Amino acid sequence: MPSSLSSRRRFLGASASFAAGAFAGPNLLLKGQNSAGKRLNLAQIGANGKGLADTGMVTLTHNIVAMVDVDQKRLDEAAHKRETHHRDSGEGTPPAPKLFTDYRKMLDEMSNEIDGVIVSTPDHTHYIAAMHAIKLKKHVCVQKPLCNYIDEVRNLHKAAKEAGVVTQMGNQGRTMDGQRMAKEWIEQGVIGTLKEIRLWTNRPIWPQGPIKKKLIDAPEGFDWNGWLSCEPLEPHFDLDLSPEDSKKNKRGNSVHPFNWRGWWQFGSGALGDMGCHIMDATFSILGQIIPEKIDVQSGEITDLTAPMWSSLVYHMPAGKHPALKVTWNDGMKDGKPNKPERHPDIPEATFDKASSGMMFIGTDGVIFEGDAYCASPVIYPQEKYTQVRLDMKAGKIKKTETRSVMPNNPQGEWAHHIVNGGLPSSNFDYSCPLTEFVLLGNLAVRSQQMVQWDTKAMKVTNVEAANKFVSRPSYRAGYTA
Q: What is the largest CA-CA distance in the chain?
């Protein structure tokens, strides 16, 4: 998001102005609004933290009529911050959203008042919350990864298509120009033939590896039962960390609201957290194909938690490009960042600064991006990049990829297309296969051996035991899709 409220206001205003008239055929199913009003009634599930950031992308241009969070303190805090944001933006104070601690109650009571729902909860509740909304024919914008089980991704995709709703995943890089430029450069031969892709992240930045549970009373005002959601009911717990590890972990030992990411029950590890960002450009550039097999090495895992590091090799079949390998590295190994080998054309100091990033290696050069979103890719050798920029300016390198109407604002882009028609950049036709691409790595990690994937059968063909990780083991009564 922009760094200040005023700059965000200018950004959203400019984006809305630019987008007006870009698509024909507005969606007329707006509760309490006509299409000319261009203001949607939206509900936010998961109100604070990432949810508050997601709401902030649309709150000045649409109506937030409901906010949901299982933590009453965080819910009240989010509502207050939203009110302050409007006041500081000079927009005045809008009607206060209705506040709920249970998304099911919110959807049951307010279905007739809502056009769309933004889901920004922990991974394990994405599926059931989004499915509940989709069955009520509400448009949905869901944070990444869409789900933490492949079976859920497939079911969500099918349900959304049948309901005919506008969908989006919150991977903001998909709305940016950078990955589109990288794709255009590669397709127009700037780096020769693409032969390898290397991806990495510094995640996890939360505790993973072998961790025990420490039973402790839930904080006052926090609905632990509701937070567990579809997972089996169990006593509330914190992370049982050593004094040394507790000191390193600046976010505390509570599993809520951040440290859940390392637990298979609730999150999907470093890969699930960052893969839908860092693998996004790769997925697009390769033509949205799925790997044939995945090799794996990793640190110690348990049935409960993901490892502190992993190294994966996705074997990609020939498609738009020759068959090649996509490597993924995450975490810390032997006290050092588990990064891939640097391409010799990339300056060492530049590479060392990149805690996350990507390298698209061709026969005649390499495209490098030292962040998670492929926002500002560059080309090495440097003289090649200089020439490419001149060729772009002269029109010799064409813009072949459709740009987003709202760069760096997936929630705003989603809302725009609900009103004006057209498809968001990371609609489920794109983001469901992308999420599956990402989660396939976790099948290898959890299996601790190479896996071969049959995408039509949705099955690992060489390791039968790995198939138990394709679907969630069970859903608790009252929290089914």
A: 65
